Amino acid sequence: MKRHLLPLCTLALWACMPLSASAQQTAADFFDSGISKSKTGDFTGALQAFSMAITMNPENAPSYYNRGVAKANLKDHRGAILDYDRAIELNSKDALAYLSRGISKSKQDDHRAALLDFSRAIELNPDDPQAYYNRGASRSRIEQFRGALSDFDKAIELEPSNVQTYYARGITKQKLDDFSGSLADFTKVIEMNPKRGQAFAGRGLSKVELKDFAGAVTDLNKAIELSPEDGESFFYRGYAKSKLDDYKSALGDYDRAIALKGDNYQAYYGRGFCRSKLGDQKGAVQDFNQAIEINNVNTESKVVYSGRITRATLDNLRNVVQERNKINELGTERAEAYFSRAVSKSKQGDPKAAIIDLNKSIELNPTYAEAYFTRGMIKSAQGDQKGAIMDCNSAIKLNPRYAEAFYVRGIIKHSLGDENGGCLDLSKAGELGYNPAYKVISDYCN
After folding, report:
1. pTM here?
2. Which InterPro entries match (predicted)?
């Protein structure tokens, strides 16, 4: 959401704390480089710069804060939270750090924890409308609608020109069944931004609830004109038309609502009702059957790959990783030879023989991180994900900066249902410089 992007231009004013004359200059250079990169949208480059600043001066709160902002802009909210934690540990009076941590927590659907951060941000800076807005949004998510309404009121008092807050307040009033009150907020949004289809949709829904069906159709016409893929607007317009006895036109709206969202059982019911009114009893019965079937479906199922990363997706994401097969001086124990032969056998489609060679390589050199990692990759491709995780664990223990191992372990954990653990590993991979991790984070960790 747009309000969640923090104004990085203000952050350059924060000075680095001194460590020593030479270290301060070096850390300051990296810090300033990170700020410059952030301003240009190069958040990957900014992250690396702030990491270097932290290496030079690990007690500097702004470096952790700004690295957290860079991670958040890369949608790595779990990683961002860890940096905000450290920034707050070093400076517990920084309202922005609490606000930013709350935003990242809310992005992870941890709204109760986010509330605590937003409340602390408000204590430290009671005139920040963004903190009230975000606290209101989190309160809405956990159905504390009256508290949310109070926060949105305060945010509007402090910033009367913010369109998003009026819209959020209108939605909150709907949740409290104050449909009449919501009309004014949606109308204000439309006055300030006539191209916002959501506001017309929201006002149209309130008019449906207030039984102003003709007015609802007018608003929903505009909502659909601005957002042609909004299935809910088609559904409610169909409902309003059916209330006006325009069953033929309503039928077309229900058709479109179902095409956009095939499991909308209410749309099947509405279409069945219209078909019945138009004399198509066979079609009506089919729609009523479908409505009942969808509404009663049991979605519980036991699967091994229980995360959003399926087995097929896991294979695609893992297979882009290249094993570290570099020419090494052949040691007396010949571990490198077994390793290289294993890589060749794997590429020839003989994974069993490859694993035998990797086992021998590890037996000869138990500190061979690349051999563990490569064996883990092959195990994962063969479906032994738990064995693959154990090999990645070993590789990371031997080389704590093995970015690809964190990446592969992360996507495997996620595929097995450990979304939090998987996304934290992906965050670490990105922090260590393996940039493809951020695409996976963006797609699967938010």
Report:
1. 0.75
2. TPR-like_helical_dom_sf, TPR_rpt, Ycf3
